[in-house]
Design brief:
alpha/beta; D-Maltodextrin-Binding Protein, domain 2; 2 domains; 5-stranded mixed beta sheet; 10 helices
């Protein structure tokens, strides 16, 4: 992934529910459906030309089944009722689908199972802060809509004196299946051992809220996570946590579609462009204080370096 673009988010995130409520990791939780009636999507007009480009399965059902890991506040997480999925990603994709005239049904899932769920037909789309990389592009069609990088979070005052460039021999918490767990942390650990220093000890969990709790409990010395949930974790910690340094490895997020749905992906690009033009896109990101991650080059299968 490229490090040439750095996104800076303000610390004043809108917080609707505590991280402890974000406890999903399987499909056992209640599904949440939305027609956009209580979100910015409510004012979005249907574009008949886009509606005509819906895949037959979605057109017939009148809804899009979305796989998501609802533990990633503020992007996708559970509301105070413990079952309704809310967040920046939710509002934005609801608005995108409103352009097609279909409802969204958000189904909580383990993050690492979402792409398989899309390719197997369990979900129509995966929307869960997926960083676009070559491995994922090899499995699915992806549509870029946002950008973010990796941020270290530590206990207030950084008592373990964590160096984000060389956290050798430390316990670093990451979410299972993420680029932090699969790519970045192993690369950092190799850098340590190549330099004759002890390897990093990864602490991995499928639930981002549990990853965050590892720092709060002292089990982890630091965590690596995308910047928006890093800021949210700090905001929810009552002063117990802080950001360390600046984010790195900024890269685009992408919607995950079946490999053979590039045409549908292009229609989603057209919907995003329309939402950007009429101000809805920026309105939604501003609502969640993530507007600095906005992009204008919405693309199907963009070229990435990692």
């Amino acid at each position: 992934m490229s490090t040439s673009r750095t996104v800076r988010f303000g610390l004043s995130l809108a917080v609707v529910a505590a991280l402890g409520l974000s406890a999903c990791g399987s499909d056992s939780l209640s599904k949440s459906s939305s027609s956009g009636s209580s979100s910015p999507a409510a004012s979005v007009a249907v574009d008949p030309a886009l509606a005509a480009k819906l895949p037959a399965k979605i057109k017939s059902a009148g809804k899009v089944v979305v796989g998501t890991d609802a533990t990633y506040q503020p992007n996708e997480y559970l509301d105070t009722d413990g079952k309704t999925v809310i967040g920046m990603d939710v509002d934005l994709f609801n608005a995108v689908m409103a352009k097609f005239g279909v409802k969204t049904e958000w189904v909580p899932s383990d993050f690492s199972a979402i792409i398989l769920g899309v390719t197997s037909g369990k979900y129509d789309v995966g929307v869960s802060s997926f960083t676009i990389n070559k491995d994922r592009l090899g499995q699915a069609t992806m549509v870029s809509y946002f950008t973010a990088g990796t941020q270290f979070v530590v206990a207030k005052g950084n008592p373990k004196k964590v160096d984000q460039t060389m956290p050798c021999g430390l316990n670093i918490a990451v979410q299972k299946g993420t680029v932090q767990a699969d790519d970045q942390l192993p690369a950092l650990s190799k850098k340590c051992t190549d330099g004759g220093k002890p390897a990093i000890n990864p602490l991995v969990d499928a639930d981002q809220a549990k990853v965050t709790s590892m720092i709060q409990s002292g089990k982890a010395d630091a965590m690596m996570v995308d910047l928006p949930p890093a800021i949210s974790a700090v905001e929810n910690s009552s002063g117990a946590l802080e950001l360390l340094g600046h984010q790195t490895d900024s890269a685009p997020y992408g919607y995950v579609l079946p490999k053979d749905q590039a045409d549908f992906g292009q229609a989603i690009v057209d919907a995003l462009k329309a939402l950007d033009k009429d101000g809805t896109y920026k309105q939604i990101l501003t609502k969640w204080k993530t507007q600095d991650g906005a992009i204008t080059d919405f693309t199907v299968n963009p070229k990435v370096t990692g």
